[in-house]
From TrEMBL:
<comment type="function">
    <text>Catalyzes the phosphorylation of the position 2 hydroxy group of 4-diphosphocytidyl-2C-methyl-D-erythritol.</text>
</comment>
<protein>
    <recommendedName>
        <fullName>4-diphosphocytidyl-2-C-methyl-D-erythritol kinase</fullName>
        <ecNumber>2.7.1.148</ecNumber>
    </recommendedName>
</protein>
<keyword id="KW-0067">ATP-binding</keyword>
<feature type="domain" description="GHMP kinase C-terminal">
    <location>
        <begin position="211"/>
        <end position="285"/>
    </location>
</feature>
<dbReference type="InterPro" id="IPR020568">
    <property type="entry name" value="Ribosomal_Su5_D2-typ_SF"/>
</dbReference>
<dbReference type="InterPro" id="IPR013750">
    <property type="entry name" value="GHMP_kinase_C_dom"/>
</dbReference>
<feature type="active site">
    <location>
        <position position="10"/>
    </location>
</feature>
<comment type="similarity">
    <text>Belongs to the GHMP kinase family. IspE subfamily.</text>
</comment>
<dbReference type="Pfam" id="PF08544">
    <property type="entry name" value="GHMP_kinases_C"/>
</dbReference>
<keyword id="KW-0414">Isoprene biosynthesis</keyword>
<dbReference type="GO" id="GO:0016301">
    <property type="term" value="F:kinase activity"/>
</dbReference>
<feature type="domain" description="GHMP kinase N-terminal">
    <location>
        <begin position="67"/>
        <end position="145"/>
    </location>
</feature>
<dbReference type="Pfam" id="PF00288">
    <property type="entry name" value="GHMP_kinases_N"/>
</dbReference>
<dbReference type="InterPro" id="IPR004424">
    <property type="entry name" value="IspE"/>
</dbReference>
<feature type="active site">
    <location>
        <position position="137"/>
    </location>
</feature>
<keyword id="KW-0418">Kinase</keyword>
<feature type="binding site">
    <location>
        <begin position="95"/>
        <end position="105"/>
    </location>
    <ligand>
        <name>ATP</name>
    </ligand>
</feature>
Length: 304
């Protein structure tokens, strides 16, 4: 028996970052948006947990127990008191360390795949709790669509959305570390004199104009409302990202922002044809390693 699960990458159409909490996390107003660019995780009977990975970035994916797919398999087995026996394979299309939650996606996919392979029938609410133990972005990869993440991003509220939006993702050479980008955000706030703790920074909230744009299926209004508090820190660590953003805008994107903690840049296009043209221009611009046209929203991790 082989179980195959498809799982989406995400872009954060709003990423409001609050102050640094005592536990080392930041409270967020994190509007996640799932896109069709995604990974496929297969699970087959095996002995212990083994893992293989293919795809353009496969060489930078850890294949040991630190891989989120392997951690997910062990966590699910431990929750049910069963022995984790599974051969996992990741067909990886999501850029690694790119701010598109690829590792989180594989963790969510492995939860769903192992649950089916082992016939556990775990309630969705329990899968969400296990996902939150694995990482702040993992619950959203189960839910998909568009959702507001509060707390560290794990407390999810699905949001109404109409129609399909067309995106282009420009993949950079090399990744950025998520904790390093959050630290740079704190450092820039200290430098600006505003303070960086949760006593100094107001708790962020979702922007009503952004929520209306999503509900109306209006790409021009969504483009105008895109914001990411981690964009300035990501550019501070990787100044070349400003060139990539400019190249996409010059190629006709109606909106541009860094995806999550970066360094992938996300561009909103008015339609599928414009997205294909923007991807081609970005590849020719020499400001990124590759550019992919895609669309969303799409569902979360599902057996295919
Ligand atoms: C920034 C975001 C936006 O969706 O995504 P990426 O850009 O990484 O894809 C997420 O908040 C990333 O979530 P995820 O990658 O799951 O992070 P976790 O494993 O939970 O945490 C890794 C580290 O990031 C920092 N962190 C993460 C989440 C959060 N709300 N506040 C934080 O300060 C902490 O330093 C934490 O130790
Ligand atoms: N299945 C996985 N795929 C990719 N990276 C993984 C995976 N499991 C663990 N990692 C580790 O997580 C780090 C962050 O990767 P990723 O989730 O792709 O990026 P981001 O947090 O920027 O969205 C990687 O550098 C890698 O060391």
């Amino acid at each position: 028996m082989t179980v195959t699960v498809r799982v989406p990458a995400k872009v954060n159409v709003q990423l409001g970052v609050g102050g640094l909490r005592a536990d080392g996390f930041h409270d967020l107003a994190n509007v996640f948006f799932a896109v069709a660019l995604g990974d496929e995780v297969t699970a087959e009977p095996g002995e212990g947990v083994t893992l293989t990975c293919t795809g353009p970035d496969a060489a930078s994916v850890p294949l040991d127990d630190s891989n989120l797919a392997a951690r997910a398999a062990r966590l699910l087995a431990a929750h049910h008191g069963v022995t984790p026996n599974v051969r996992l394979h990741i067909a990886k299309a999501i850029p690694v360390a790119g701010g598109m939650a690829g590792g989180s996606a594989d963790g969510a996919a492995a939860l769903v795949a192992c649950d089916a392979l082992w016939g556990l029938d775990t309630p969705f609410e329990t899968l969400l709790e296990l996902a939150a133990e694995l990482g702040s972005d993992v619950p959203f990869a189960l839910v998909g669509g568009v959702a507001l993440g509060r707390g560290r991003g794990e407390i999810l509220e699905p949001l109404p959305v109409a129609g399909t939006f067309h995106w282009v993702f420009a993949v950079a050479d090399g990744g950025l570390s998520t904790p390093a980008v959050f630290r740079e955000c704190d450092r820039l706030r200290e430098e600006a004199g505003t303070g960086s703790s949760d006593a100094d920074v107001p708790t962020p909230d979702a922007d009503p104009a952004l929520l209306a744009a999503l509900a109306d299926g209006d790409p021009v209004a969504l483009a105008a409302a895109l914001t990411n508090d981690l964009q300035a820190p990501a550019i501070s660590l990787r100044p070349a990202l400003a060139e990539t953003l400019r190249a996409g805008t010059e190629a006709g994107a109606i909106g541009a922002l860094v995806s999550g903690s970066g360094p992938t840049c996300a561009f909103l296009a008015k339609d599928a044809e414009a997205a294909a043209a923007i991807a081609k221009s970005l590849e020719e611009s020499g400001t990124c390693r590759a550019a992919h046209a895609t669309y969303g929203p799409v569902p979360g991790a599902r057996v295919s």
